[in-house]
Amino acid sequence: MNQHPLEKIRKISREDLEQLKLERFQSTLNRVYQNVPFYHDRFKEFQLDPSDFTSLEHIRYLPFTTRKDLSNHYPYGMFAVPLRDILRIHTSVGSGANPTVVGYTSRDLANWKEIVARCLLASEVRPNDIIQVVFDYGLANWGRDFKDGAETIEASIIPMSYLPSDKQLLVMRDYRTSVLITTPSLALHLISTLEGLEFSAANLALKKCLLLGEQLNDSVRARIEDGLGVKVWGAYGLSEVPGPGIAFECRERQGFHVSEDHFILEIVDPDSGEPLPQGEFGELILTTITTKAFPLIRFRTGDKARLLNSTCPCGLNLSRLEFLPERTDEVVVIRGVKIHPVQIATAIRKRLNGTNPAYVVFVTKEEFLEVIELWISVDDNLFSDKIKNLEMVCETIKRDLQDTLGIGVKVKLVEPPTLEPYKEQLGKIVRG
Fold it and tell me: Which CATH number goes with the domain that contains 32?
């Protein structure tokens, strides 16, 4: 392994870090202005020029980038380099009508290995560890990122595979896994599954657990630590930005350090878009400053967070975030996958020939794993000659959503009066 990724950033002073961020920010603005028509047009629309930005504080004058923008410019409209320079293309679910397509240059891949390696090292993962990655299909790309990060720090890794939970636990026992990387809900599901097996957590070599993709509160952390006999760390990532390890807990576990040499973070009022004082909760906005292929300027994450005021005892000069479970948009996170109501509506319209029946989406739990239950009102339109087999239509919608989202879906046809109590939730996702 080359220079220790954590020590590399630990040695930089706050003053030097701010200067580095400014230089990379200015370089990024020039590149997107020249190479991404979407950003070029936005600069013109707001009468801005990259040369105007001589301070990091000037970032507030730039317009936001949204998930809708990414969907509207599918697949390659947001790329800043020619396709011949792209070494890897990742597709994630997205939260609009189209999936999110992210490209990586060789430099991007090298940077991301360092970012994930930094996250692993902060979670006390070491070269002698054996890492097992367990994600749902919707986070397959993150599995690849952790494989690269683990190999960067020369740890052993069992790459992600779609095995049933009991088989994952057998692998964990027999392969002597010492580090589990997964989502909080999948960790709880593994604990539940373990209770029905012939061995217990005491038979595992597991020592550490890195959780991401969902909110991690103190009670869930404590339950997983007790159930698996591990120490739990959290991390934060976004498939659009693009990947895990953007922010991570250190040994102190007092907030999430942001890799500020790669990202600029802001906390803004979700309604006005104005910056909020340090310590106040608002929407997290991220700008990439080292990404070559898929740079994003002031991306609205929809995550609610605040900047912590105090200095972390671990000695890292990186800013820290505290997150809230609430979001500032309509997106709902289920097992690490971000789902927007428009994705549900699109699937329904597609299979009902453009018909828009009333529906409600419920999020329910089965053995700690959240699943979607879609109730569709059977009105006169559904009994038209065009649809002769409602059960077949129901199964098709279910399959479409499961293929798109990568998580379990149930579809139920109900009579209109059944949805009467849910008038305020029609067309929305309701978490029970």
Answer: 3.40.50.12780
With CA atoms as reference, report the closest residue to 201 among 175, 172, 222, 181: 172
Residues of the chain with pLDDT under 70: 1-3, 380-389, 432
Cis peptide before 75 (omega within 30 of 0): yes
pLDDT attached to residue 92: 83
Strands 179-182 and 208-211: parallel
193-218 CB burial, b ≥16 within 10 A, e <16: bbeeeeeebeebebbbbbbbbbbbee
State pLDDT tens for residues 385-412.
455 567 788 899 999 998 888 888 999 9
CA dist., res. 231 & res. 206, Å (int): 9
Q: Report the domain count for the chain.
A: 2
For residues 423 and 306, membership in a common domain is answered with no
Classify each residue of 168-180 as buried b or exposed e, where b means 16 or more C-beta atoms within 10 Å of its C-beta. Answer: bbebbbeeebbbb
Q: Which pLDDT belongs to residue 2?
A: 52
- The pLDDT score that the predictor gives to residue 374 is 96
186/291 same-domain check: yes
pTM, full prediction: 0.93
Alpha helix ranges (H) inside 84-139: 106-122
- At residue 167's C-alpha, the angle toward residues 244 and 188, to 5°, is 55
Running DSSP on this structure, what letter comes out for residue 63? P
First to last CA, the chain: 47
Q: How far apart are the C-alpha atoms of 288 and 290, rounded to whole Å?
A: 6
